[in-house]
Amino acid sequence: MLPGGHLLSVLIFFPAVERWRSCCCARRSQIHPIIALIVSLAEFLFSLLVIPKVPIGTPGYHLKIRQVVSRPPINYHLGVDGISLFLVILTTFLTAHLRPGVVE
C-alpha cells in the first residue's frame, strides 16, 4: 500500500501518464476510449483509498507530502483536508462518468 502522500501524487499524475501514452500512439483506434474509461475508473478507485486515511473533523491538512528540488528551485507540497477530500472524490467520480472521445 502506498503511503498517503504518495497516493495524492498518483491521483495527480496517473491520468497525465495515460494521456501522454495515448498521444504517443501514431494512429487512433477504437480501443483508446476504452482505455481512457478504464484509467478514469482506476483513478476513482484510487481516490476511494484516500477516504479512510483522512480523519474527518480534525483541523489541518493530512496525507502531506513535501519534496524540494534544488535545481531548478521547485517546492512540491500536497495535502488534503476534510473539504478538499470530498472535492477530490467528486472530481474523480465525474471524470469516470464522462464519455471518452466526445470532447476533444
Q: Can you walk me through this structure?
A:
The protein is an alpha+beta fold and 104 residues long. The protein has one domain. Helices cover 53% and strands 14% of the residues. The chain contains three helices and two strands; from the N terminus they run ααββα. The protein has a two-stranded antiparallel sheet with strand order 1-2. α1 packs antiparallel against α2 (31-48) and α2 runs antiparallel to α3 (82-97). The longest helix is centred in the N-terminal third of the chain and has 21 residues, at 4-24. The mean pLDDT is 81.
Q: Helical element count?
A: 3
State the order of secondary-structure elements, H for helix, E for strand.
Answer: HHEEH
Oligomer: single chain
Class of secondary structure makeup? alpha+beta
The general outline is flat
Q: Which labels suit this protein?
A:
alpha+beta; two-stranded antiparallel sheet; 3 helices; 2 strands; 104 residues; single chain
Précis, in short:
This protein is 53% helix and 14% strand. The chain contains three helices and two strands, in the order ααββα.
Structural topology:
Elements: H1 4-24, H2 31-48, E1 62-69, E2 74-80, H3 82-97
Antiparallel strand pairs: 1-2
